[in-house]
Specification:
alpha/beta; ornithine cyclodeaminase, domain 1; Rossmann fold; eight-stranded parallel sheet; 12 helices
């Protein structure tokens, strides 16, 4: 038995977004049912390199499959300018839960982008208005692409407004999608007045206010993944129907972490977790809802669910490079 080595291109080819969205939704449901194990994300802070490492192990049991693995990922903001490397890189080890055999080692960076987009799509499907046709995106980095790729799978998106201080990044995004959507550059407020808004920035000072949002906008707050990060003003969070992915992670490092630790926002301000909505324990969007917010920190169960999709398709399609990692000679 051999381990499959899967590059970023292999992950991209085999992580078909509709399949990833379904797998991530199953992961949220498994976690809510108690059919998953996900220890807290651990951090190794390296201020001397202006970066950190994060380890994310998980196991989940879906209806007819199980998956286990661990993602080792970094965030080094100086990498692009100083080392010509991406800010975020990741490696995923995907294992057979029954035997612990390492079935695959795959690029975790592409995997992260795919599952992050899929998580936003799951939330959008349950929390956005049914006839949503416009998507705003604040932040034109790599995560913005899978936000559109995924959300357009669950809503008939026609108009896309992207806002970023980096005009070159905005133009690159427009060039990529101009043949598929009515896509243009715009202000944060113009993006926020779309039916759905995804924020994918690393800011620590909020950049989206209540006035920047439409009356019924659904917001996917995807950027905050560490203490101190904060994209939406407290007023937005306090007035919205607020849904989180995981209590411990969001209060520690999600969009709500700053106002939560300041005592501005409390448990009573959180409507529930996305897993509760997926499993039908609580309602998603109702006719009475105005602005809704999904606070996504990114869960390890999303990674193993996506890795399962990638591995199964790669095995079927004979993609990747098999090698004898353990020296078993077979």
């Amino acid at each position: 038995m051999q381990t499959l080595l899967l590059s970023s291109e292999d992950v991209d080819e085999n992580a078909q977004m509709p399949d990833v969205i379904r797998a991530v939704e199953e992961a949220f449901a498994a976690y809510e049912r108690g059919d998953a194990q996900m220890p807290a994300k651990s951090y190794i802070d390296l201020p001397q390199y202006d970066g950190d490492f994060r380890s994310m192990p998980a196991y989940m049991q879906a209806a007819d499959w199980a998956a286990a693995g661990i993602k080792w990922v970094n965030v080094h903001p100086n990498n692009p300018q100083e080392h010509d490397l991406p800010t975020v890189m990741g490696t995923m080890i995907y294992s057979d839960p029954e035997t612990a055999f390492p079935l695959a080692i795959m690029d975790g960076t592409e995997l992260t982008m795919k599952r992050t987009g899929a998580a936003a799509a799951v939330a959008t499907d349950h929390l956005a208005v049914e006839d949503a046709s416009s998507l705003g995106i604040v932040g034109a980095g790599v995560q913005s692409y899978t936000q559109l790729d995924a959300i357009s799978q669950v809503r008939d998106i026609e108009e896309v407004v992207v806002a970023d201080v980096n005009e070159e990044a905005v133009q690159k995004f427009i060039d990529r999608y101009e043949d598929e959507f009515d896509v243009r550059a715009g202000s944060i407020s113009e993006a926020g007045h779309c039916d759905v808004l995804s924020t994918v920035t690393p800011v620590e000072d909020p950049i989206v206010s209540a006035e920047d949002l439409g009356e019924h906008t659904h917001v996917n707050a995807m950027g905050a993944d560490a203490e101190g990060k904060h994209e939406l003003t407290d007023e937005v969070l306090l007035n919205a129907k607020l849904v989180i992915d995981d209590y411990d992670q969001t209060t520690h490092s999600g969009e709500i972490n700053v106002p939560f630790h300041a005592g501005v926002l409390g448990d009573d301000d959180i409507y529930g977790e996305i897993g509760q909505i997926v499993t039908g324990k609580i309602e998603g969007r109702t006719a009475d809802d105005g602005v809704t917010v999904f606070d996504s920190t990114g869960l390890a169960i999303q990674d193993v669910a996506t890795a399962h999709v990638v591995y199964e398709h790669a095995d079927e399609n004979d993609n990747g490079t098999p090698f004898d990692l353990l020296g078993l000679g077979n």
